[in-house]
Amino acid sequence: MADFFCCARPVGVVGLSFPSRKALPHKATGDGGEPLVLVLDEVDAGIGGETAIAVGAAIGELGRRHQVLAVTHLAQVAARADHHGLLRKEVQDGRTRSGLVWLAGPGRVRELARLLSGHPDRPEALAHARSLLGA
Known about the structure:
The protein has helices at 49-65, 75-78, 105-117, 123-134, and strands at 4-8, 37-41, 67-72, 83-92, 95-103. It is of the alpha/beta class.
């Protein structure tokens, strides 16, 4: 079984790169072959609602057989991930740097709530985020 990694990306961050596929953890597929590494950058652009839920489920299914890194702005997709990261961009001393913070527990719920509503602390957004994680 492989993994589905998901990264939420605030507007303006340009991407994520790995120096080699060895930078992502591998797991054997059980069929003697090595899983593929799939990088999906905003394949869910322009969709929402039921379609977003279906796309999240399909990407999650891919993650059962392959390593999947999906960059998304949709909580419906991010909630299906095995691992959830937040990509951030900052400028220090005139240099732009991108960084990744892995989220779990309450931090993940707050980020899903932010993706859903723009307000990570609103009770209704947090409840919706928790319901997506339970789906």
